[in-house]
Inverse folding.
């Protein structure tokens, strides 16, 4: 597995969110070789180690991307970036979503984020239950 900074980017997610678990499983299916992303819960040590406290303050508690260049992407920008990196038809979806004003995209994102526990449930485990092969793509 390539280390962060070489070829992969880190997706930090709310480890207790059922919707975030589903998003992680979606990305795992679309990136089967693990060339684009690694994963770690926002509640874990990797997030604290890779993202300094002053940059963590004020971030949403759902999905955060740490890019190869060190940028932090949040809300709808994070998902557009994921789609772009996955390539294929997902890249086209990223382009279509990208024309929608960020304020509108983020308002929809924030609405879903506010209701995600009620709709998708809250998990006790911070990582989805996976095979050992897929588990190797997760950081703590």
């Amino acid at each position: 597995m390539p280390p962060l900074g070489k070829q992969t980017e880190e997706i930090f997610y709310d480890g207790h969110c059922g919707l975030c678990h589903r998003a992680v499983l979606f990305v795992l299916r679309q990136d089967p070789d693990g060339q684009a992303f690694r994963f770690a819960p926002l509640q874990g040590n990797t997030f604290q180690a890779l993202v300094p406290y002053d940059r963590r303050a004020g971030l949403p508690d759902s999905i955060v991307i740490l890019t190869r260049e060190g940028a932090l992407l949040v809300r709808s920008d994070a998902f557009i970036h994921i789609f772009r990196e996955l390539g294929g038809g997902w890249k086209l979806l990223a382009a279509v979503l990208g024309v929608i004003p960020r304020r509108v995209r983020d308002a929809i994102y924030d609405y879903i984020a506010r209701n995600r526990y009620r709709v998708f449930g809250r998990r006790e485990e911070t990582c989805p239950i996976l095979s050992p092969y897929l588990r190797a793509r997760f950081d703590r």
